[in-house]
Amino acid sequence: MTPTTDQEPLTVTLRVRIGQEEAHYGGQLVDGARILRLFGDLVTEITIRSDGDEGLLSEYAGIRFTAPVRPGDYVEATARLVRSTKLRRFVELTARKVIAATGEGPSSAAVLPEPVTVCTARATTVVPRHARVFRVEDPVGASTGGR
User: Fold this and answer.
1) Which residues pair with 97 in a beta bridge?
2) Alpha-carbon distance 130 to 133, whole Å?
3) Which superkingdom (predicted)?
4) Which sign, positive or negative, has the C-alpha torsion 31, 36, 38, 40?
5) Is the pLDDT assigned to residue 61 strictly greater than 50?
6) Residue 107 predicted with pLDDT over 90
7) How far apart are the first and last CA of the chain?
């Protein structure tokens, strides 16, 4: 079942600066697991907002890393709830670099004219039946904690 309201799909976003301590590979590259941790936080927020519970991430699918991430970059990650069943939530995920370290100096960076997609994926999360406080289709319950 999908949300039955005329409202926009449930979408959440976060933006982080990638620190120097996160460089793991030659060329000062950040490992893809850092982006997946952002995605995990977003999926958790989706299920909290939709069900009042953190849920359990059960699967990532279609993970594609499309551009490098380096220390000093700012990454904006977005999750959008695209489908729901009684126990599962299906989420589309995108991470984009919005500010890039330029390498011209130890702290130089530039706002990118257009965000650069660095990773896309899909996730499935399970909300235990006993933990669901309210239904995804109930945006009023979502804003009041289902009470």
Assistant:
1) 75, 116
2) 8
3) Bacteria
4) negative
5) yes
6) no
7) 22
